[in-house]
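Kindly inspect this one:
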Amino acid sequence: MALRQTLCVSMLVAASPAPAAEDFIDGVYLQSEELCAQAKKGKLQDVIEAGNIVLSARGLEGVEYNCEFLQVTKASRSPSWAVTAICQEPGFVFPDVLSVTQMSPKQIDLVSVRPVDDESEQAGNGGSYFHCEGVALP
């Protein structure tokens, strides 16, 4: 009986989502301050539908593309986090590991271990993102 209860508790703990690291990013981030201004004037959904990627504590989200952040670990010597993610696009799912670094109160830089194969492809999951004050996720 005790073994069964221990097993049930272990399964519940394993099924619970990983807690986010302390002081992880908060709010909505886009790839430029101009996009933030557009999202603030109109709708964030319109900016996303125009082909832009949104960064939040949940992950990266775009049209037919997303990366769900699974585990977030805070660095002890810098304003950075190591993040594991599962990313999806139509017909393709892949893991990624990213560093998320707070460059300033308004700027976050991402670096992905995933190589970019094609020169026409954007920088993959890497790049700079800017905090969009007053913009919320849909």
User: Anything to note?
Assistant: Residues 23-131 form one domain.
